[in-house]
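Hi support team,

I've been running sequence recovery on a batch of backbones for a student project. Most finish fine, but this one hangs at about 90% for roughly twenty minutes before it completes. I'm not sure whether the input is malformed or the queue is just slow. I've pasted the structure tokens below so you can try to reproduce it. Let me know if you need the job ID as well.

Thanks,
M.K.
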């Protein structure tokens, strides 16, 4: 098993998807935290807000034990109720969030799929972006990846950190290519859910 991804110049964020796990989900989250990624984004899109909140409490506890930042996804009100000030949101949710609400967070990540979205997310107060999908991935079967040129263009157009997402693996050559494009890191989903 990988010992750590924390000593890299290129930062790695783990993105959850419990449907990809071969073992109990919380056990998998603990395995992920043991390699100390930059953060874990709890991205479980099929859960209701109540179910998500229950799971988030447990994941936040595990992340805390390993001193790994936990970023909650989508349900920003639940994040605040749980005392989590780091969220990752789809751009349409950020567009509807007031400046007063945004001030309650120390970190707001946004998923973007175009340079225009990247610029808008930055203007609306995003702390960082995930730009994708960069490489071919089973999550987006049949959809051509946007590629490294897209990643480079996004990185040139914004002044906030950009992470590549989509098809990212435990592959230093791939990480080096993204870093050359200006990305500060990458997000790994299936690789993290199977380590």
């Amino acid at each position: 098993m990988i010992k750590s991804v924390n000593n890299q110049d290129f930062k790695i964020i783990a993105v959850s998807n419990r449907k990809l796990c071969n073992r109990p989900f919380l056990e998998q989250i603990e395995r992920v935290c043991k390699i100390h990624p930059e953060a874990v984004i709890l991205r479980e899109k099929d859960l209701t807000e109540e179910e998500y909140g229950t799971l988030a409490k447990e994941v936040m506890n595990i992340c805390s034990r390993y001193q790994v930042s936990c970023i909650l996804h989508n349900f920003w009100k639940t994040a605040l109720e749980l005392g989590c000030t780091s969220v990752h949101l789809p751009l349409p949710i950020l567009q509807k969030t007031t400046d007063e609400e945004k001030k309650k967070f120390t970190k707001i990540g946004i998923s973007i799929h175009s340079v225009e979205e990247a610029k808008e997310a930055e203007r609306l107060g995003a702390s960082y972006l995930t730009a994708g999908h960069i490489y071919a991935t089973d999550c987006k079967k049949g959809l051509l990846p946007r590629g490294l040129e897209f990643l480079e263009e996004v990185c040139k157009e914004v002044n906030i950190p950009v992470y590549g997402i989509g098809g990212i693996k435990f592959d230093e050559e791939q990480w080096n290519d993204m870093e050359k494009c200006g990305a500060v890191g990458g997000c790994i989903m299936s690789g993290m859910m199977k380590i």
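--
Follow-up from support: It reproduced on our side and the slowdown came from queue contention, not your input. The first helix runs from residue 25 to 34. No action needed from you.
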